[in-house]
Design a protein that fits this description.
The chain is an all-beta fold. It is about 0% helix and about 35% strand. Strands 11, 12, 13, 14, 15 and 16 form a 6-stranded antiparallel beta sheet that branches. The longest helix has 4 residues. The mean pLDDT is about 95.
Length: about 400
């Protein structure tokens, strides 16, 4: 059994330069992130401005948001997803404006030179659809399709497909947003399946939606994290939620959810609660998580656990890492390591919104992020390293 150990926990004066960093090639220590390159495993960085500037002449209020880049090591191509909104006059200072649930859609850009220049800026459109109706069941201006937190990382499958784990709002009667669970939002998970073309574009298909049960998760399925197993199965782990108008006393169990595909992402099992290896479900808040396949072949899950039933998003501590059994797809209880937790002198802490990867030089798991105060009023940058023995 893999033994996980906390090797270091370091408070930083500023956000770690390893935040959102990824390796550029299948081997070696070159790293890239948006607008920057490192030749020495992230120790030093060279910055640049991407060319061309696709966003320079956008109308006021349009948004082109940043999202961590994805490197396809099989061909060296970099994909930059761009969550977008074309809403003229929208106040650029507003965070998560309600209209985003109707207007979000996805664009993508591809670079062949390590992220310095991008070939095009295109809408992600399912084959047979249009930019205004980019995915089956999604109409721009009525219901949005968008990314979750950064744990929703793209992956490349052994079959050569590039998968985007996204989420989409639902349309109800009269073309208005549907909210069958009564929570703050309600989404299905949508896996977009990309195939490379010779000119550097991707053609897009869409897998069967992963639909939650509004009687078990008041916000549906949210912020999917993907991993491919050695036998070709795909595991998708998702955030759910309790609370809201139909569960005002937070009585629904606060589960983490999972679904499995055996055909490359085209079809998915009904989502069920993620459990420990003894079959017991565990409590987890409505927060992001991440799956990471270690070079040793071990599958790791990083997220938040709780000893008691959670209340929607809270509490987002402790931050844990544990091994997922690659046969049963259950979290091995004895492997779970608490990376960080609320301190006695803190009224609360949020240990979410992190970025995780395996350090190729040491094979440690690097977790870059912050210790956010209660209510996210302050962020204290932090870096954790976990050893895998």
């Amino acid at each position: 059994m893999a033994k996980l150990t906390l090797k270091s926990s370091t408070a930083l004066p500023v956000t770690s330069p390893l935040m959102y960093a990824a390796y550029l090639k299948p081997t070696g220590l070159e790293m890239v992130k948006l607008n920057a390159y490192s030749a020495d495993n992230g120790a030093t960085w060279t910055s640049w401005l991407n060319q061309p500037d696709f966003d320079r002449d956008l109308p006021h209020g349009y948004r082109r948001e940043g999202f961590p880049i994805f490197v396809d090591w099989s061909n060296g191509r970099i994909v930059r997803l761009v969550p977008s909104m074309d809403t003229e006059g929208l106040d650029p200072t507003l965070e998560e404006p309600p209209i985003a649930l109707q207007t979000y859609y996805l664009r993508y850009r591809v670079s062949l030179d390590g992220g310095r220049a991008y070939l095009f800026d295109d809408v992600v459109v399912q084959q047979g659809k249009t930019p205004l109706n980019p995915v089956e069941g999604v109409t721009r201006g009525r219901n949005g399709i968008f990314m979750g937190d950064v744990g929703s990382q793209m992956i490349r499958t052994r079959a050569g497909k590039v998968l985007i784990p996204a989420q989409a709002c639902l349309l109800g009667e009269g073309g208005k947003l549907a909210n069958p669970g009564g929570g703050w939002t309600y989404t299905d998970v949508v896996i977009l399946i990309g195939t490379w073309t010779t000119d550097g574009h991707l053609t897009w298909e869409v897998g069967q939606r992963i639909e939650g049960d509004p009687g078990r998760s008041t916000r549906g399925m949210i912020e999917p994290a993907l991993a491919e197993l050695s036998d070709g199965r795909l595991l998708c782990v998702m955030r759910g939620s309790n609370g809201g108008a139909k569960d005002p006393e937070w009585k629904l169990p606060s589960y983490r959810w999972q679904s499995v595909s055996t055909d490359g992402g085209y079809h998915w099992s009904k989502p069920e609660p993620m459990t420990y290896d003894d079959g017991q479900p565990f409590h987890s808040p409505s927060s992001m998580s991440q799956l990471l396949m270690h070079s040793s072949g071990r599958l790791l899950w990083i997220g938040n656990l709780s000893d008691a039933n959670c209340r929607g998003n809270d509490p987002r501590h402790p931050l844990v890492i544990g091994r997922v059994d690659t046969l049963s797809l259950r979290l091995v209880r004895g492997s779970v390591l608490v990376v960080d937790d609320k301190r006695p002198d803190e009224p609360g802490v949020n240990l979410s919104h992190f970025w995780t990867f395996e350090d190729r030089a040491t094979h440690d798991i690097v977790i870059a992020g912050a210790r956010y105060s209660e209510g996210y009023k302050a962020a204290h940058p932090h870096l954790w390293r976990v050893g895998v023995e």
